[in-house]
Design goal:
Layout (H helix, E strand, L loop, with lengths): L7 E4 L11 E4 L12 H7 L6 H8 L27 H18 L5 E4 H15 L3 E5 L3 H5 L5 H13 L2 E4 L2 H10 L7 E3 L9 H4 L10 E6 L8 H14 L3 E6 L5 H10 L6 E5 L4 H8 L3 E4 L9 H7 L4 E4 L12 E3 L4 H13 L1 H16 L3 H16 L1
Parallel strand pairs: 1-2, 3-4, 4-5, 5-6, 7-8, 7-10, 8-9, 10-11, 11-12
Helix pairs in contact: 3-4, 4-6, 9-13, 12-14
């Protein structure tokens, strides 16, 4: 973060383990209905990132009669966290609270991430007159494979229409925003993601040498969007050529059962493993234990997983429909639907040690150059243009 810049993070429900140097507002501790709680009681109710003084200051900026809303004893709205049944109601609640925050704080720019916070960003802009920057990590066209939810689409489009600057995680997503949401190309920018340097504990994880059997891994949500069925079909083709490869499909999702069934139908269950959802260290152990990583996404706005795999020295095969392919050249790219090309690529990396070593060494060098510092500098440049 730049020394002349402060960021206020508005989180629905801080969990308490956030970094101490961040300035955080817990939106579930911002009053929208006037109450007069005792200072000591309030201190016990506030998250560690906020004080009773913050509460009293924000209480002075309640701008409407919200007594009809469901609030707790200190006049605040609770959030379920995650993706509850009443998600659209919580999105609306978040935007109401943003109205109080926008009246309470001094700021130059509003930055809203993804459609869940777009209504809050628009509301804050209406109140403050400050420029709105929105960040598009994915659109409903990516999530739904074309069967767009009209409610989500209208929230996304309204956010884009009101935005002064739209940052997209890839040129692929930028084209979707321009073509499907009818936005002015002059305000839409590709802002690719990056990776942090690999922590020492992950760098030092052992990398087993698989002399007899190679391991090929899919790691991510097991859904239609991620192309999980194409991975299984490609695996079946590879296993017609050789039995010396094992396939790992790590993750969870609404197509997990269907993929287990498909593996059984193809007669390759003895070569397939489903270790389930992974987090933290497990993810990097899985990358290190793989000879090839495959991301066959049908529509991937960016896709950070191949970069993480490459950091671990694992060659990657990605679909041409992935945003990260715009900044990666030391990978193999195939169309998600081309299971024969995918199978050829998997077999080639497993059977050809020199190809494996080339992709391993050059991939690590390439991904080491893709840093968040560079992305941060570009974002700062767009901020400066907005303010000026």
């Amino acid at each position: 973060m730049q020394p002349d810049m402060e960021t206020i993070f508005c989180l629905p429900k801080p969990c308490g383990d956030e970094e101490n140097f961040l300035k955080i507002i817990g939106m579930n501790s911002v009053p929208i209905v006037w109450r007069d709680p005792d200072y000591g009681y309030l201190k016990s109710r506030m998250p560690s990132c906020m004080s009773p003084e913050d509460y009293y200051r924000m209480r002075d900026h309640i701008y409407a009669d919200f007594r009809y809303m469901h609030v707790n004893d200190i006049g605040c709205m609770e959030f379920a966290g995650g993706y509850p049944q009443n998600l659209h109601e919580e999105i609306n609640n978040f935007s109401i609270i943003a109205g109080v925050v926008a009246r309470s704080e001094n700021f130059d720019i509003i930055h809203a991430h993804d459609w869940l916070t777009f209504p809050a960003g628009v509301h804050a802009k209406m109140i403050s007159g400050r420029p709105l920057c929105i960040h598009v990590h994915a659109t409903d066209f990516d999530r739904s494979r074309g069967k767009v939810n009209p409610t989500v689409y209208s929230i996304e489009k309204n956010g884009m229409d009101h935005a002064d600057c739209i940052m997209c995680v890839s040129e692929l997503t930028r084209r979707t925003v321009i073509n499907e949401y009818h936005q002015n190309p002059d305000k839409v920018f590709a802002m690719h993601n990056a990776v942090y340097p690999l922590p020492m504990e992950y760098q030092n994880l052992p990398r087993p040498e698989h002399k007899k059997e190679k391991v090929v891994t899919f790691l991510g949500r097991i859904t239609m969007q991620k192309g999980s069925e194409y991975f299984v079909e490609a695996a079946a083709l590879v296993l017609k050529r050789t039995k010396n490869i094992r396939f790992c499909m790590a993750g969870s999702g609404d197509m997990l059962e269907a993929m287990i069934d498909l593996v059984a139908q193809r007669g390759i269950a003895d070569r397939f493993h489903f270790p389930g959802f992974m987090r933290g260290r497990q993810v990097y152990e899985c990358y290190k234990n793989s000879d090839v990583f495959v991301m066959p996404s049908v529509s991937e706005p960016f896709g950070i997983a191949p970069l993480e795999a490459m950091q671990c020295g694992t060659p990657s095969i990605i679909s041409k429909q992935s945003g990260c392919g715009e900044i990666l050249s030391k990978v193999i790219k195939v169309d998600y639907w081309d299971i024969h090309a995918m199978a050829d690529a998997i077999y080639s990396v497993c059977a050809n040690p020199s190809l494996f070593e080339y992709l391993q060494n050059e991939g690590m060098k390439e991904v080491d150059e893709i840093t968040w510092e560079k992305v941060g500098q570009r974002i700062r440049g767009l901020y400066d243009n907005l303010v000026n």
